[in-house]
Amino acid sequence: MTDRFRSGAGRLCLDFIRTLRYRGTPSETEELPDASAWGAWIDRFGPFAAPVRPESADEARAVREAIHELLTTSVRPSTRQRLNRVAALPVPAPSLTPSGELRWQAADPASAMLALLARDALELVTSPEFARVRKCAGARCGALFLDTSRPGTRRWCSMGVCGNQAKKSTYRAKVTTGFQALGGADEPATTFSS
């Protein structure tokens, strides 16, 4: 189940907004359709040891869209107010168990997770890192990610997925173009070595 959510965007809030996969394309897919999916996302990315079972995913989706707006467009006052309100909620608190393990607790883990996400987004948008937030150049993707490469020229959210697809497409186009330049038969000629 953990493989259903993508990670690696560079910030928790960026991983969170990727739960609307292929945003703005015909393939757009909602990864938080219900409370069960929202709980699974918290279990994957949150600090809690025990599974979280929220009652609804409505507020999570609303906060996700507010974060996306904050990072990509001019922010409406209502969006700013929502994020400020959510960021002010109690966050998970650490506690030490009798065996010396660190555990994170919250009266309402789902709300505490939203508070962490809103705070992360507010910190990101006001930090120098914000200048390195990029939109994936993948034809179907468009996910946001934090470019941590030294030159700051990263193009894809994931080299293993979007970058690999782009390289395959470029290679196929070169092969097709080269083949057409050689005569353009339906099948490439087979070359035998002796």
TrEMBL record:
Top-rank taxon, per record: Bacteria
TM helices/strands, residue ranges: none
Alphabetized Pfam families for the sequence: ABATE, zf-CGNR
Record Gene3D superfamilies: Jann2411-like domain (1.10.3300.10)
Domain Zinc finger CGNR: from-to ranges: 132-174
InterPro entries on file: ABATE (IPR010852), ABATE_dom_sf (IPR023286), Znf_CGNR (IPR021005)
PANTHER family: BLL6575 PROTEIN
Protein's recorded name: Zinc finger CGNR domain-containing protein
